[in-house]
Hints:
alpha/beta, Aspartate Aminotransferase, domain 1, Aspartate Aminotransferase, domain 2, 2 domains, five-stranded mixed beta sheet, four-stranded antiparallel beta sheet, 13 strands, about 35% helix, binds 4'-deoxy-4'-aminopyridoxal-5'-phosphate
Amino acid sequence: MRQWEKNIRTVVPYVPGEQPNHKDMVKLNTNENPYPPAPGVKKVLENMDADILRLYPDPTIKRLVQELAHYYKLEDDQVFVGVGSDDVLATAFLTFFNSDKPILFPDITYSFYPVWCDLYRIPNVRPALDDNFHISKEDYNKENGGIVIANPNAPTSVYEELSVIEDIIKNNQESIVIVDEAYVDFAGASAVELINRYDNLVVVQTFSKARSMAGMRIGYAMGNAALIKALNDVKYSINSYTLNQTAIYAGVEAVKDVAYYKEGIRKIITTRDWSEQRLMELGFSFPKSGANFIFASHKSIPAKSIFEYLRSNNIYVRYFNVPRIDNYLRITIGTEEEMKRLFTFLKVFIEADQ
Ligand code: PMP
């Protein structure tokens, strides 16, 4: 082995869901929003003058920070913006998780967390979710170097009441607790309301789900000013110009259009409730979803064969071949038409098996 080979940082990377681009496909595999972003976003793209791209974007991302702070009733210095919440979370792991003690997160959760631990050499312990995929909050009452909880969780879709999250934050005031709220708009109360009470809390959200902008890559963290400064110090030590000009302007328009945002959430929840009913009729069980996806298991047909059958019919859902969840499908909520097509195929496949 050559010396330089030993010096390479090796890591087993995160594997994102596939991004097929077939005509007439139904894409329900990566929790994207089936509706377009707010009309103001489209206007930004149409009116964008290419000349502006000569210049570097604003490194402080001020316009978008201000707009988000205004919407969430925070101060500007309580908001950090990054290139999708993956970027924000990666920066937060690097910034906050530097203890010799292990950080804690559930055994079944967003599969990027163990990858960042591996990349940054962060020791970690992963308490098991209970049989209903809920957190046992006592598991988080032991010594740790930090905690990260996705709420609602992925890929289970389970939302924990804010009181559970608050207890974990309250009992761990010597650690930073990151609450990853990528899907919270489809669930219930956000931990944002706890920020001014707990200085060890960082809440991370994204434009990829409820704001329909996965392709634009915008995420943000909210917390007290000292934590946000720490995130910015790390960001400026890697790359000052994270968000591009277009994303900054488009992001502002998305945050401003509150009515469109709320209506989009309502549509997804309506289709989700209807889809849960249909899935039940077809013999699926699932935890009550607090997200824009359902995590479902069939009473007799293995998830893998349903996944493969759907895929061969141009319908994409997500299947994880990992312990405890290898008989589940994660199905993103699409438009009503897309879901109807899914159910037409599911019904044929399931009835053929009876
Ligand atoms: N957190 C969770 C729990 C997620 O499921 C996702 C989406 N894959 C993300 C964060 C990252 O989303 P994004 O980088 O698009 O903001």
